[in-house]
């Protein structure tokens, strides 16, 4: 019998990198106008991307910090179950096996027009989450546990008060981080529309790009993220993060070629807007950083505390289960 491990695969939406470009609403800051915007236009795309990433990660967390948060989240949810199972004769059950992994995230993505050109959001997400996919196979193995284990799990679940979503969030995320993330996305959305115009022009261009992956699946541009996830599944297990690209399987190289076509269309649909205006986005980043300086400082301190909690649980940046 396959054990139902759904309860142990929780992935927090706040840290997951979205694969589709969406326009997010909410309260935020407006881009600086006039002289400030013009003065900032000399910044290169690399300058703007680096500063955007630095500011965003200072309150939203780096990829490593988000991985630490996932460790704390998973322990908060599964730690009591681990203790119960150990007491009932299953000390080898590891609460950390089911921990998710953060994907890279481009801080400029909400601006649509000014997201990083050539950013491999589809393949990078698959590679980043490979350890979780491997853990899923272990959790779902038919012969992993002896008879009686599933019954013991149910008994332990009945005896434990599960942590609420609020408790999990408070334990693993700095206070104020979520609000800052939403404000950032709003500010970037607004500057994207102001400098680049309606996002509909970009979406229409992508819809007309005649992408092979969409045609082969009878899908529209709105389905691109789901289609690319399906194409990645067809390519088989993704390579390891440190694997030499020359050793990738032919199927995975084929998936990268499919992704290349999507990225080429993306570049063609927004390169004119990007090249003409990317430097002007720096004014919004500077304004956001200055306007939210106190909240950002508090969030940065909070991330240090999250990392310290994860370290107490045995996490020091390694991949895979953490053991006891």
From TrEMBL:
Keywords: Signal. The keyword Signal applies. PROSITE patterns: PROKAR_LIPOPROTEIN. Residues 1-25 form the signal peptide. It comes from the Bacteria. The keyword Signal applies. This is Imelysin-like domain-containing protein. It comes from Nocardioides daeguensis.
